[in-house]
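The methods section describes the discrete structure representation at length, but only in general terms. An entry of this sort, consisting of the sequence and the corresponding backbone structure tokens, reads as follows:
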Amino acid sequence: MSRDPAAARAVALRYTGQGAPRVTAKADGALVEAMLALAERHGVPRHRDPALAALLARVELDAEIPPALYAAVAAVLALIYAAAEGREA
């Protein structure tokens, strides 16, 4: 049984409120579990979206996400902020 390559991918974003969010880390294959464990250990929120991760993985490290991904990333950020405040988005 083969695994979906998109499912074995993780991308970290950083958003400071200025400019667009930036890709700060990427992992695929065996490194995904380590990246996710590190995020959990440091209290970094996680969201599973293999299709969005595949698109974000094409962005260079430390580069802002492209305008075409603004809406999708904004929706994820809204979910994360809402969860942090204990409410639904």
Notes: The mean pLDDT is 90. The chain has three helices and two strands. Residues 70-84 form the longest helix (15 residues).
